[in-house]
Amino acid sequence: MADTHDLQEFLLFAIALAKEAGKMIKDATETRMSGTGNQFLAKYDNPTDLVTETDQAVEKFIKNRLSVTYPTHRFIGEETMAEGVETVFTDEPTWIVDPIDGTTNFVHGHPFVAVSIGLTIGKEPVVGVVYCPLMNELYSAAKGQGAFLNESIRLPLFQPTPPPLGDLSQCIVSTEAGSDRSPEVIDKKMEMIHTILRQKQNNGKQAHSIRCTGSAAINLCTVAKGVVDVYWEVGCWEWDVAAAIVIVREAGGIVVTGSHQPDPSPVNIFSRKYLAIRGAQDEKSQLDIAQQMWDIIPEINASRKPVPGGFEP
Ligand code: LIP
Fold first, then answer.
1. What are the tens digits of pLDDT across the range 276-295?
2. 176: Cβ below 6 Å to ligand 1?
3. 98 annotated as belonging to a binding site for a ligand
4. Domain of 81?
5. Ligand 1: does its nearest atom lie under 6 Å from the Cβ of 103?
6. Sequential DSSP letters for 193-254
């Protein structure tokens, strides 16, 4: 098992790597803005699941760097899996990488894009770096060492203690439409959003509001900051969340299952169903909010098996 010193070394390495990758993304955005390149393609024959040459180039760059510096470590990446490489997850140190989280934003020139670099050891996320190069925000954390914005601002932003969580009606909830637009998935997600927002006298939770950044990693970092109270998503992947889970936890938040079946234990990062609650004074108030979400989350399938047009229903 890695000690504190090892984790610090891995963290510094990941921060440096994320900065280099971020520069590639920033340069590609400028090229794109000047109208000279970066076509996008649909993955899995799904026109709402996009990939660009930059996603592929950044993943290749990160993968190569990691294999030179840590040749015995394993690698799981979004674009590597899209090429059909089978995901094998073991107790060995494993880097879990999304070269661009928020690819749809990137394609449109919207600035909410991030490179996400996480490390698991013994299957537990222990190091996480999420860098948003177009906004110059770098989020980082290592297990037991706190979470930071731009390496010096401790998260959550509310110090010394975050405000009480209260009731779901007093929360901002972030979520996403996701890339699966089949009626059985999108209708349930829209109904869930409706329930979160609807008036209490009409059986809703009447939360303060909903936010969607287009990036699971950035959504989770807003929870780590404490400026968003809850994040719920079904259908994103381990590379979207592995790094940011460490950042949320080190900022005092919890990340549990986003399925309709309540479970207060740490989330299975391969489940494709995530629920995060921001830091608060006590875990009971976090679990109270989680329970209010579990009470209304519908059963939504999120398979891992690709079929033409998306994933097995
Ligand atoms: C995106 C996720 C987002 C989800 C999108 C997509 P990508 O990741 O972060 O939360 O709703 O469908 O999966 O594809 O930009 O890396």
1. 999 999 999 999 999 999 99
2. yes
3. yes
4. 4-154
5. yes
6. HHHHHS-GGGT----SEEE--S-HHHHHHHHHHTSS-EEEEES--HHHHHHHHHHHHHTT-E
